[in-house]
Amino acid sequence: MEVDDVPLDDKAKRMRDLLSSFYAPDPSASAPSFPATHASLDAINSASFDPDQYMNLLVQKSSLEGLLQRHVEMAAEIKNLDTDLQMLVYENYNKFISATDTIKRMKSKIVGMETNMEQLLDKIMSVQSRSDHVNTSLFEKREHVEKLHRTCNLLRKVQFIYDLPARLGKCIKSEAYADAVRFYTGAMPIFKAYGDSSFQDCKRASEEAIAIITKNLQGKLFSDSESIQARAEAAVLLKQLDFPVDSLRAKLLEKLEQSLVDLQLNVEDISSASVDSSDPSEQRNASMPIPSNAHEASVREFAEAICAYRVIFPDSDEQLTQLARDLVSKLFETTEQYVKNRISSADLLHVLGIIWTDVLLMDGVVHEAVLRDHCLEAARMVVKQYVANTFSHLLHDISDALTKAHIEQKDGVEKDSLQVALEASKKRVLQGSMDVLLDFRQLLDDNLELLAKIKDWIIDWVQGGFQDFFRELDNHFILLSGRNNSSSHDQVLAGLVLVLAQLSLFIEQTAIPRITEEIAASFSGGGIRGSEYGPAFVPGEICRIFRSAGEKFLHLYINIRTQRVSVLLKKRFTVLNWVKHKEPREVHMFVDLFLHELEAIGNEVKQILPQGVRRHRRTDSNGSTTSSRSNPLREEKLNRSNTQRARSQLLETHLAKLFKQKVEIFTKVEFNQESVVTMVVKLCLKSLQEFVRLQTFNRSGFQQIQLDIQFLRTPLRETVEDEAAIDFLLDEVIVAASERCLDPIPLEPPILDKLIQAKLAKTNEQNTISQ
Amino acid sequence: MQGGSSGIGYGLKYQARCISDVRADTDHTSFLTGTLSLKEENEVHLIRLSSGGTELVCEGLFSHPNEIWDLASCPFDQRIFSTVYSTGESYGAAIWQIPELYGELNSPQLEKITSLGAHVGKIKCILWWPCGRHDKLISIDEENLFLWSLDMPKKAIQVQLQESAGLHNLSGGAWDPHDVNALAATSESSIQFWDLRTMMKTNLIERSHVRNVDYNPKKPHVIVTAEDESGICIWDIRKSKAPVQELPGHTHWTWAVRCNPEHEGLILSSGTDSTVNLWLASPFSRDELTSETLVDSPTRQPDPLLNSYSDYEDSVYGLAWSSREPWIFASLSYDGRVVVESVKPFLFRK
Question: Mind telling me how many Å the CA of A563 is from chain B's nearest CA?
Answer without folding.
Answer: 7
